Amino acid sequence: MRICLVTPFAWSQPHDVNEHVAGVAAALRDLGHTVTVVAPSTRAADLKAGRHALAGTDPLPDVVAITPAVPISRRSQMGVPVGARANIALILARGDFDVVHGFEPGLPSLSYLALLETNAVTAATFSSSERLTYPPAKGQRERLRARIDALIALSPEARDAAAELYTGTWHLESPGIDLATFGPATKRNIIVVEAKRTERPLARAVIDTLRELPDWEIVLLNTKPLGGRPSVPRALTGRVHVRTARDGASRAAILAEAAIFVPAVDGLPRLLLEAQTSGCAIARPTGVAEQPELAAALAARFADTETLLTTEKSVSLAAAEGASFADVAASLAAIYDQALAQRPATRPRRDSDPLADRPWILADLHMHTSWSFDCAVEPADLVAHAEAEGLGAIAVTDHNVFGGALATVEVAADRELIVIPGEEIKTDNQGEVIGLFLEREIPRGMPFDETIAAIKEQGGLVYVPHPFDRMHTVPSPATLQRHLADIDLFEVYNARLLWDAHNDEALRFARKYDLAMGAGSDAHVLQGLGTGAVRMRSFNDPEEFLVSIRGAEIVRRPKSLAYLQSLKWMAQVRDKVK
């Protein structure tokens, strides 16, 4: 596979996300995959090399820095400056990747842009519950979710927080560990405490235990630039040390000789895994968030009881098994394969058109009659106006009723106009589904999958209307992705939508998953008929329809929505007066 891993953080600076990306990239390459890491950088040399990679024709290097990093804080840097979107589009086109994997896309970052821009299979990894602030609007988050094929989290906390915003099946992966760097070694009487400015009571509680442990020392380990240190009693000054280790190699030397590790309540999952792999006993009792003294007491107990300390070291090593970068890479490769397999097979291009002898017609695939509660157009008037507009086929898709379709078929029985009997069916909570070429009415209110099954049972075609119009109740992206193989037709142009962006999103989705594309006016008044249609070869049955629609062209003939909506309201008022 050709895989692109996109990180939002400057590759030139240490960061836990970049450590994960680097380890996974190396392990995936060991499995035989071609992997390119895309990142911002603060180094001029990296950016110069990135510009050459974008402009050149040689194979892409392992890491491509495509934009300067924009400082967010002095702890981390991530970048979306001017030109970032263009560079993302260039690198995605150059790489022709099978998989694009964005890390921390809940930030305004390269990862977010890459997932929006690519048509490849996508994966998104969330590693922190605090990096979920972007995009702020629900509609934008739903658009991002529609672009993601696989959802991954590196901790239960990150998964639970992200799952509130992005629904779907989640994969829980380890942060990954480099077994060549971390491992058990000869231990000294050292307690390592993960230091965080927001959790100083924990550090102070552990420091206080040194009074009862005369042969032990404490290392306060910072993984970020030091922002201060807790006060240390003068009597313990020589036994409490502060270390800042921002990368794995620096931390490995400290953890290798440490016997006990006290993680912060809201600490780095990677650091905990590194301590476990190094054979440290982990002092993390239940309730430590409310009572930091509990962790200090447990650390003291480990220090006083050699047998307990030995047992806990074995527990740590067992907990770290299966968490190497090689294990993570193998799991990710399986996730990628699963996502690739879920995409419908790309249909081969035909050298000849089996319906080439048929005339071209305009087909409006979505409209209503007076059988719908919000429409006053009689079937006979609909047929006459469709012919006057030059339409060769129409699909009558009334809301949750089938009588209007049958009546229209009867009116057009002796005419050249093709009438497809259909119904726009409201599901329980996943929007609407249109059934085309139906024989009988399908009740509303069933789950999405049962509605599809009811359409298929009649030999009908499944047509998903206005799939991203958030003025309607629409199916979730996870639902659409779960039923890709069941969708026969995907509406990429609905003439009644207020926002063109919703049609554009449907078009992108259909192109990504190679879905047959449909269009309709969704007309509720005669004047709206034909404002959305497809130009296709004439057909006689559902099978020929599917053959024809693959070579169809989307036809947009919009009219003023205010004008059409006012006509609809006037018609409804007249009906009430009658």
From TrEMBL:
Domain named Polymerase/histidinol phosphatase N-terminal: residues: 363-429
Q: InterPro entries given for it?
A: Glyco_trans_4-like_N (IPR028098), PHP_dom (IPR004013), PHP_domain (IPR052018), Pol/His_phosphatase_N (IPR003141), Pol/histidinol_Pase-like (IPR016195)
GO MF entries: 5'-3' DNA exonuclease activity; 5'-3' RNA exonuclease activity
Q: Tell me the PANTHER family matching this sequence.
A: EXONUCLEASE (PTHR42924), POLYMERASE_HISTIDINOL PHOSPHATASE N-TERMINAL DOMAIN-CONTAINING PROTEIN (PTHR42924:SF3)
What is the protein name given in its UniProt record? Answer: Unannotated protein
Q: Which organism is it from?
A: freshwater metagenome
